[in-house]
Amino acid sequence: MAIPFEEYNNLIVVPLTINKSITLDFIVDTGVQNAIITEKLFADLLSLQYPRKITIAGPGLVDSVTAFIANDIKLDLPGGVSANRSSLLVLETDYLQLKNNMGAEIYGIIGYELFSRFIIELNYDRKEMILHNPRFFKKRRFMSQVPLAVEKTKPYITSANQNAGSPDVDSIKLMVDTGASHA
Predict the structure, then answer these.
(1) pLDDT tens, residue by residue, 35-56
(2) Domains and CATH numbers, the chain
(3) DSSP assignment of 137-149, as one string?
(4) How many angstroms from the chain centroid is the CA of residue 68?
(5) For the chain, does the N or the C end have fewer beta carbons within 10 angstroms?
(6) DSSP secondary structure string, 18-74?
């Protein structure tokens, strides 16, 4: 099934409906484990319950970030893709400032939960993210397979070392991160 996406600063952004109530734009990020809502106000409007409060390593210059965990959340993407009983991290304070940094109304990030369930084809020309059921997926001629290793919910590829200055290193491990617009 094809899900249309917007592209901001080379990042994929899709609408995500939370508990059949609020639809917000989320970045699709292969580097994030749990879905994150950055603006606690929306979680409060949904009257989400937080059985746990956690501290996680902060992004960039922030040492740590306080977040709440909300369980049994229903997440819906366009086209009928749903995840029931999901966990959602709710940031206590919007440290990421996605709305300000992206210049668009973006209030969250989704990643591993999506990538662990589907084979995902990204078509940047048509601005579509196509989700394939792994049981029925058949590789097409124009596609090529790249070996991928998932470690602690993060995808990595191994590439031949192109640096002539380091002859001792045969390969380099690279994280595939759709949530970063830099190398």
Answers:
(1) 999 999 999 999 999 999 998 8
(2) 2-132 (2.40.70.10)
(3) ----TT------E
(4) 18
(5) C
(6) ETTTEEEEEEE-TT-SSEEES-HHHHHHTT---SEEEEEEPSTT-SEEEEEEEEEEE
Q: What pLDDT is attached to residue 39?
A: 93
Among 43, 5, 50, residue whose Cα is nearest residue 21: 43
Those residues with Cβ within 8 angstroms of residue 128's Cβ, 6 or more apart along the chain or in another chain: 2, 3, 4, 5, 122
Beta strands 11-18 and 64-77, pairing class? antiparallel
Task: Return left, alpha or beta for 79; rule: phi > 0 is left, psi -120 to 50 is alpha, else beta.
Answer: left
The amino acid occupying position 72 is D
86: closest CA among 108, 103, 102, 64?
Answer: 108
Instruction: Take residue 47 and report the two structure tokens written for it.
Output: 């009257």
Residue segments in the chain with a per-residue pLDDT below the cut of 70: 58-62, 162-169, 183
What gap in Å lies between CA 66 and CA 90, rounded to an integer? Answer: 9
Residue 142: predicted pLDDT = 87
pLDDT, tens digit, for every residue of 76-90? 999 889 989 899 999
